[in-house]
Amino acid sequence: MDEPPCSPSDTCSGEPRVGCNDSAPCLVDTKVEGKTGKNKKHKKRRSAARQTKTSCDCTQVAVEELSPPSQHPPERHEKRSAGSKQEKNTRKTRNPSISPETSPALSSHKQKAQSAQKTSARSTCDQSTQTESPQLQSVQTQSTQTPPTQGEHTPSTESKSTQTKHSSFPLKQAYWGNSFTDQSDDQQKHQFISKNSYLTVITWNIDGLDSDNVFDRSKGLLSVLGKYRADVVLLQELIPPSLKVLQNIMTDYQFLQASEEGYFTGILLRKERVQFLQSSIVKYPTTEMGRNLLVANVSFLGHPLCIMTSHLESCKTGSQERLNQLRRVWKWMKEAPEDHSVIFGGDTNLRDWEVKKLNGMPDSISDVWEMLGKPEESRYTWDTSINENNEIPNSIRLRFDRIFLRPAAEGAQLRPESMTLIGLEKLKCDYFISDHWGILCTFTFEASEE
């Protein structure tokens, strides 16, 4: 998630420092080591997060971590009170490593940096200890338990097996439909890909760092992804547990990931329509939040494509580094093979004035939203006037998430047909799937004028 720009009362400057460039980028005053926990992240982690466990079984844990909510959810899920918001806002300032003068936006990202740093250091499965949030807490591996006698079924083993089945069933059902074992043709009427000439792309920051209502939100995410079955899905703020869940259920997709620890981006390719060729990860040398660019070369129904996704530097004070990263994205788009159509989609964290500072889009690259006539209904992908996941009191509407297109210099030309925001429905737990709306974009290939 990306926090709102600093208000006039905050100490951080709205404009990036002058005189910064790619070789000597501008750094924020207080060191940020990566994007870490959101303002509301400490609600449920205070006591349970200190519990340790001996190693983890990454494959088995993925579904078990997302246990369904109880039949009687807390009252706050039914209706959030003003007191709840006040308590949450009070906890935002309890991190002793952040000075009171620091802006709320920067404070949030520093907290997320520290969390990401800890996750990075502890995420390997062969470590002796690890701490996690209560809703993403793993169980001990079978190797640390006393194996049962052959032929003997222990209560704990049976209970764990039953729990896994019950936990995974609603997630699979959400993705595959009521008869999830059959990849039914009924799903096709909900998908834009029913016509072979159409390419569908989803880009979405799924807010994986938020541990609140993670089961319901994961179920909602799978339901939306299962409904549209886009050819290409670009995700930001993935974390290892959520990635494992998606991989276990979305077996009709090939997964590419930009990292194996912390939080990262991912590219999902629908196997029956997109042929994977190769991929690469481009580092941002001066990022302070562990950001990078994930690139995949694919073939879509015989058309060569270059797919890219990234999560650019967060917070208004990270503007200069964000622009450095944007220049690098544009450079890679321009240098892609000329016969490839290039699509970038991701959480850019861009403000419109930042693009103007770079004299607008490059000649060969277009903003798809602008190509479609700037439709107002799909302008704001981060909208706190509607989305209350972060309980931000101010109404802030920004177009953080964007899709760029560089058409091929020869052959069939890729053109955008439509753009729709997804994930707009509030879940029963009184949360949205993410604090960002997702973008569903449809493209078509047109014969070259030549």
Task: Explain how this protein is built.
It is a single chain. The protein is α+β, with helices and mostly antiparallel strands and 450 residues long. The protein has 10 helices and 14 strands. The protein has helices at 58-64, 75-78, 82-91, 104-122, 155-176, 214-228, 240-249, 319-334, 352-357, 368-371; strands spanning 198-205, 232-238, 253-257, 264-270, 274-283, 292-300, 303-310, 341-347, 366-367, 382-383, 397-398, 401-406, 413-422, 438-446. The strands form 3 sheets. It has a 6-stranded mixed β-sheet. Strand 3 (253-257) and strand 4 (264-270) form a beta hairpin. The longest helix has 22 residues, at 155-176.
Element layout with pairings:
Layout: H1 58-64, H2 75-78, H3 82-91, H4 104-122, H5 155-176, E1 198-205, H6 214-228, E2 232-238, H7 240-249, E3 253-257, E4 264-270, E5 274-283, E6 292-300, E7 303-310, H8 319-334, E8 341-347, H9 352-357, E9 366-367, H10 368-371, E10 382-383, E11 397-398, E12 401-406, E13 413-422, E14 438-446
Parallel strand pairs: 1-2, 7-8
Antiparallel strand pairs: 1-14, 2-4, 3-4, 5-6, 6-7, 8-12, 9-12, 10-11, 13-14
